[in-house]
Write a structure and sequence with these properties.
Largest sheet: 10 strands, mixed
Shape: globular
Number of helices: 10
Radius of gyration: 18 Å
CATH architecture: 3-Layer(aba) Sandwich
Number of strands: 14
Oligomer: single chain
Distance between the termini: 30 Å
Helix content: 25-40%
Bound molecules: adenosine-5'-triphosphate, magnesium ion
CATH topology: UDP-N-acetylmuramoyl-L-alanine:D-glutamate ligase
Amino acid sequence: MSGKESGGIGSLGELLVEFVCTEKDGHNRRAAPYVGPFASGAPGIFIDQAARVGARAIFAGAVGDDAFGSVLRQRLTEVGVSDKLIATVPGIPTGSAFVSYNTDGSRDFVFNIAHSAASHFPRDSKALETLKQFGLAAFHISGSTLGNPAMAKAALVICRALHDAGVAISFDPNIRKELLADPSYMETVRSLLAISAFVLPSAEDFEVLFPGEEFGTFSRRFLDGRARFVILKRGEKGCVGMDASGVVEEFDAHKVEVVDPTGAGDCFCATFVALVTSGNFSFREALRRANAAGALAVGKIGPMEGNSSLAEIEAFLGCRA
Ligand code: ATP
Ligand code: MG
């Protein structure tokens, strides 16, 4: 097939395998059983879920020539994500993460990103052309990718070029507090916020980025500029969003058992962006499904194991698929 299609969803960044500690409060500092490898990386979770709810999807990332790399490639291609821009980098391992949960709800991570294939996503002019030719309605960036300065710089260049080509940029700040002191990190966050059509902070991001502000005040500031939607993810309190015409939609969280909260935010963002850009769902109906997808995501161990199809989300909500 030749020519450009429309309506696709894209993302880029770190692809990781994740290992989850089965005991609490070990802080990754003592021997304990871990389960994994699970396919992971915030942007990877996002693109898997976008494909699950029916979007044409493409991802720019990289894996090593090893068993973990095949876990990731297989996982994404089996849900239909194009791996045209997923490189296999010889000589370095696939990226990885180890997570350990604490009884107070916090989590400790050990990441292997900078010195692994995870930091090598394709970023040359050919890759950009492939993304443009894919026919993207939206391109998503997760703040988790910005912790590495070289990745942050490359991601910003790609997002700016796609934005200039008319693609809606979607940004989940996923702020890393330990990086706040680095001026170039915050500069990249601000630059992405300035070009984003979808501004998708969590409650923690919101407190750091807009301290003391009301949701309505800060949303209007973005929506008066270029944003189409500002959505605040509130964990077990649900979500609230505003669209460019000032309409506010809000949902309480579903009552579910929390098995593994990692990835709920990425799953939520993907569901909302994919459904609302598909043209088949109103703002309210897309947000309702994102809120349900987030609740389903926390119920399974593994960062993207709780991702779900549109039919599963609608069955959970009790609406017709
Ligand atoms: P992440 O850890 O992936 O970065 P996040 O902080 O970006 O997550 P959250 O607010 O934790 O995002 O979760 C996103 C959405 O998932 C919430 O807005 C809510 O709809 C749903 N959700 C999250 N946690 C729960 C929960 N405990 N119960 C029900 N729904 C939840
Ligand atoms: Mg998040």
